[in-house]
Amino acid sequence: MKKSFFTLLLAALASTQLQAQVIEFREAKFRAGDNMEWKASNADDSQWRNIDVTRNWDNQGVPGNTTYAWYRVHFKLPKSMLEQSDIRENVLFDLAKIDDTDEAYLNGHLIGKTGKMPSDGEYRSAWSQPRKYYVKANSSWLNWDGDNVLSIRVYNGGEPGGIFGDKLKISVPSRIDGLMMRHTEAQQGMYRMEMSSDFTSAISGKLVAEVIDFDTDEVISKTEKKVSVKKGKPVNLNLPYDETRCVRIRTTFTDAASKKSISGSYSPKYILTPKAPEAPRFNTTGVFGARPKSPIIYRIPVSGVRPMKFTIKNLPNGLKLDEEKGVLSGSLSRGGDYHLNIVAENAKGKAEMDFTLRIGDNKMAQTPPMGWNSWNCWGLSITQDRVISSAQALIDKGLADYGYSYINIDDGWEAPERNADGTIAVNEKFPSMKNLGDWLHGEGLKFGIYSSPGDLTCGGYLGSIDHEKQDAESYNSWGIDYLKYDWCGYGKKHNTERDNQTVASFVRPYLLMEKYLREQPRDIFYSLCQYGMADVWKWGHAVDANSWRTTGDIADTWESMYDIGFKRNESTYPYAQPGHWNDPDMLIVGKVGWSDNLRDSRLTPDEQYTHISLWSIMASNMLIGCDIAQMDDFTVALLCNHEVNAINQDILGKQGKRAVEDGDIQIWTRELSDGTRAIGIFNVGTEDATVNLAKYSNVLNINNLKTVRDLWRQKDLSTTNLSYKIAKHGVRLLKVK
Ligand code: GLA
Question: By the 8 A CB rule, do 576 and 652 touch?
Fold first, then answer.
C-alpha cells in the first residue's frame, strides 16, 4: 500500500521532534597528543581531522602507538530541548564507551571522568564501562541557545583505542529516563531487580514482572507492584524461579503521570547438564601421555558417590594406584601404549573403562590441559591459602572427577630479589613451593607456575632472564608440572635486538627455556604466553610448546570473548594437534576479578554456554579462572558436562572451525575420533533467532543423519526436524552421525 501524504508528514514531524530532543554526533574533531589547553571552548581545532566516534580509532589512520588524544564537538543547545522534559533537571552527555580512560570537559569544565590515566599517577582501564555524564540544567557551564564545546581527553593503554560503541548523544532526560533496572540473582534460583533513579524528583507507577519460558514463550508467572522511586530510594523486586528451566524475566515499569514505560529483560542462570548418576561414571576420553621415566600423576576422573574403590588388574610395574582416591602414580621406563582396565565401584554400582597410558618422548598433553589458574580471579593478590582453597574445592565440588587437574599459580609469587646463589626466591605469600607441590601431587593434582623470559613479569615481579637453567631446576625440585612463560618484560630486550623483525628473534627466548625445561626429569607442560606475536601457532611446536596463547588477555565481556573466540583464534585451527594446542586464554566463568575483589562474570548465562562450547570445539586449554571455593551450581554444571568436555578432550585432537557464517548465525564443526562430528550453532547477534540446520545441509553434509545428540542436555533429538531456537549470544551444541 502507498503511504498517504498525511502519514508521511506525521512520520517527519515525529522524527524532527526526536531530533530536537537528542543531539547526536557520529563524527568529532580529533587530534593525537595531549595538551590541557584543548579543553577550552576557544581552543583552535580548525586544523584537526574528523574521526568516526562509533568505532575505535584503529584502522582510521591513527598511529598504532597513540596513547593520549583529544576529541572535540561543537554544538548549539536549543532551550526548546528543556521544554520537552517533564523534570528539566539535567543535561545528559552520553559518550558511549571509551578505550580505555577519559576526562570530559564542557566549555572547559570537567564534567566526568572514568578510569585512571598515567597523569593520575596510576593507570586503570575502564574500557567496558558506559560513560554517562550529567550537568545540572541550570549550571552556568551550559550555554543555552548558544555555542558549546565538548572536549574529551582520552588515554589508550593498549589497542584498541578511542571512543566506540555508539554516537555521542546530548539530551535533556525526562523523569523516566533517569530510571535504571539492575537485574541480579540474589542467590541461586532467586531473581532480584532493583529499580533506581538518577533524579531527585520521584516517579510513581506500576511495575510488572513476567517469567517467560524461552522455548515456548509461555508466561509462567506474572507479578505486579505499585512503586515510587527517586534518587537514593530504590525499590526491589524478588522472584523465585526454577533454575533447571531456561526462562526470561521481563520487567516493565509504566509511569503513572506520563504513561511512558521502560522495560528490561533478564536471563537468569539455567542448568542444562543433567545430574550425574550416583553410580560410578568415567568422565574421560581415556588417554594419558607421559615421557618415559617421568613421574606420572593422574587422578582418574570418575563421578559418583564416595567412598569409591578403584582397581586395575593389569597395573604395569612401576605404577601405584591409590585405590580410594583413584590416583595413579609412579613412572614407566619403556615407551609404548599400556592398556589398563580400570574398575570403579561404589555402593550404587560399578563402571569399567579401557584406558591407554601413552608413554613416549613426545606424548605429553595428548588432550588440552584442564585445570585452574589464579590470574582471572585473584590477579597479583594470589596467596598459597587461596591456591589450596581452590584446589580443595576442585576436589570437593567434583571438578576433579571430570578431569580438571592442573592447579596453576600465575604472576605474583616471586620475591623481589633472588637468593645469593641466583636461584629464584618466593615471596612471603608462598611459604613452601615444595610442600605445596607435594600436597597437590598427593591428591593426584598437578602443579603449575608462571614466569617470564624477561627481567620482569607483566605484574612487575622477577622474571627468568639470565637464570633460565636455575629456574627450570628449581621448578623441577618443587615438582612443577606446568610453566606459563610470559613474554612481557622481554619486550625491552627484544627492542634492542638488531634482528627484532625476524621470527627467529621471537623464537629465541622460548627455545632457550625449552632446552632447560626438557632437561628436567619430569614432564613440564610448556605454555607460551606472548599474545600471538609472529604467528606463534606456526612455530610453537618447534620449541616443543604444549600450548601457546594466540591473543591478548581475555576479559569477562562478550566483546572480549567474541573477539578472541570467533575472530582471532579461528584461523589457528590447522596448527593444533595432540601435544600442541592453541590457547585463546583462560575461562571467564564464575567469580572473577583479577584482584581481591571478586564478582560474578559479566557474561550472561547464554554467553557462558557459548564460551564453553566454543572453547570445546576449538580444543582450547580449559583453565578455570575463578575462585572454585565460591563456585555456584550453575558454574559447576557448566564445567562438568562430560559429553561437552569429551568434545574438548577428543583424542583425534583436530581443532574445529567455522563452516557457515550467515549473518549472525555461525555454525562451527569439529571432527571427532569416533567418526562423528560436533556441530555448534552460535547466534552472535543481539536478537534471539530460530535456525533450521536443513538450510545448510549441503555445506554441512548432513543429508542423511543417523543420530543427533544435544550435548548440553545429553538428549537425542529428532534427525529430521533440525530447527532450533537459539538465544542471542547463545548456542546449540550437537553431536551428529
Ligand atoms: C599477562 C598475561 C596474563 C597474566 C598476566 C600476569 O597479561 O597475558 O595471562 O599472566 O600477564 O601479570
Answer: no
Place of cell 578431569: 403
- Residues serving a catalytic function are 486, 553
Contact status, residue 43 vs residue 138, Cβ threshold 8 Å = no
- Separation of 64 CA from ligand 1 center, angstroms? 21
Grid coordinates standing for 635?
558454574
* Residues whose CB falls within 8 Å of the CB of residue 639, separated by 6 or more in sequence, listed in order: 399, 402, 404, 587, 589, 612, 622, 624, 645
What does the pLDDT look like over 660-690, one tens digit per residue?
999 999 999 999 999 999 999 999 999 999 9
Whole-angstrom CA distances from 582 to 405, 572, 607, 619, 725 are 19, 7, 21, 8, 31
Single-letter code of the amino acid located at 53: V
The predicted pLDDT at position 17 comes to: 35
Going from the Cα of 275 to the center of ligand 1, the distance in angstroms, rounded, reads 35
Yes or no: say if 537 and 548 are a contact pair by the CB < 8 Å rule: yes
Give the atom of ligand 1 at the shortest distance from the alpha carbon of 484.
10
Q: What is the pLDDT of residues 460-493, one digit of tens each?
A: 999 999 999 999 999 999 999 999 999 999 999 9
Q: What's the number of CA atoms in the CB half-sphere (13 Å) around residue 677?
A: 18
Q: Which three cell numbers stand for residue 462?
A: 622477577
Q: For ligand 1, what atom is nearest to the CA of residue 459?
A: 12
Task: Choose one of 159, 411, 585 to mutate for the ligand 1 pocket test, by most ligand atoms within 8 angstroms of C-beta.
Answer: 411
Q: How far is ligand 1, taken at its centre, from the CA of residue 279, in Å?
A: 41
Q: Could you tell me where the beta strands, DSSP code E, fall in 158-260?
A: 162-164, 168-171, 179-187, 190-197, 203-213, 219-229, 235-240, 247-255
Ligand 1 site residues (CB inside 6 A) read 375, 410-411, 450, 457-459, 486, 529, 553
Residue 322 CB coordination number (10 Å): 15
At 633, which helix (H) or strand (E)?
helix 633-639
- Segment 578-602 shows an average pLDDT of 97
Percent of the chain with pLDDT over 70: 97
C-alpha 308 to ligand 1 mean position (Å) = 39
Q: Where are the beta strands (DSSP E) in 37-122?
A: 49-52, 68-76, 90-94, 97-99, 101-106, 109-114
